[in-house]
Amino acid sequence: MSTPPPEGSSGSPHPALQAPGQYVVGPAESVGRRPADQPESAAASRAWWDAEATDYYREHRAVLGDDALMWGPEGVYESDLGLLGEVAGLDVLEFGAGAAQGSRWCAARGARTVATDISGGMLAQGRRLDAAAPGAPAYVLCDAVCLPFADESFDTVFSAYGALPFVADPARLLREVSRVLRVGGRLVFSVTHPIRWTLPDTPGQAGLTVRTSYFDRDPYVEQDAAGRATYVEHHATLGDRVRQIVAAGLHLVDLVEPEWPEHADHVWGGWSRLRGELVPGTAIFVCRKATP
Questions:
Q1: Pairing of strands 76-77, 70-72
Q2: How far apart are CA 290 and CA 114, in angstroms?
Q3: What one-character DSSP code corresponds to residue 290?
Q4: What phi and psi values does residue 12 have, to the nearest 5 degrees?
Q5: What is the pLDDT, as a whole number, of residue 290?
Q6: Lower Cβ count inside 10 Å, N or C end of the chain?
Q7: Residue 6 has what pLDDT?
C-alpha cells in the first residue's frame, strides 16, 4: 500500500492551501495546484518514493503492518471487509504495491501474486519484509499505465492507494488493468475520498472547514526551487471515477466508504477519529470485468 499524506511529504503536512492555486512556500520548495502531465508525475513519484521508502515504512508500520492488506489510513483491512473474495489458487496482481503488504497477505492465503510499483526503493523494502512473511510475491518494476503482462493474465487485480492518485491519466491506467484482467475477474482499488480533498490536511478542528473546491481537478504539486515537481497527486470526483471504470469495460459492483473503526485512535496525516467520524477519508471501488 502506498498511502502518502496528500499534502506534504515525509509525513509532515505543509500548511493547507487556502484556495486553489495559492502557494505556501517552505524551505527550498513550494506547494500548490497546477497542471502536471504523465512524464512529470511519474518522475516525481519514482524519485519521491525511492527516497521515502524506508522512512515511510518505519513511520506507518504499526498501522500498515508487514503482511496485511489495509485499504485506507483509517485502519480498515481486507480481513474485515472481504472485498477480494477467496483468492486461493488465483493469479493476483497488485499495482502500486509499495512494499507489497497486500500481495504478501494474498500469497499467504494461497494466491499466486505479482506486485508492481514504479519505485524500486519501495519494492526493495518489500523484499526485505519477505524473510519474515509466510509467502512472497513476484516483483515487477513498472509504471502502472503500461503493464508488462499479456492480455487476461490475472483473475484479480487490486491496489490500496497505489498508482491511481499519482498518474495524470487514470483512465489509461484502468484500461490497462482491464486488459490484463480475465473476463469476470475482479478489480478492487482504494483512493483518497474526493470529499477529503476539499479539507485542509490537518487531523484537528482546523481540518473540518472546506477550503478548496470539490471540482478543482488541478493536481496537488510540491516542487523544488527550480520549479521541478518533487511530489504530484491528482484529484478526481466520484463521478470521474465511475466514468473511468465504465469506459474501461468494467462494471462497478460496490462503492465502500469505510467509517472510522471503533478501536482505532491513531492519526495518519489528515486522517483522525475526529474527522473520520464526520466525513469519509477513503473510497473503495469494487469492480468486475464485463463479458464482451
A1: antiparallel
A2: 23
A3: P
A4: -115, 100
A5: 87
A6: C
A7: 41
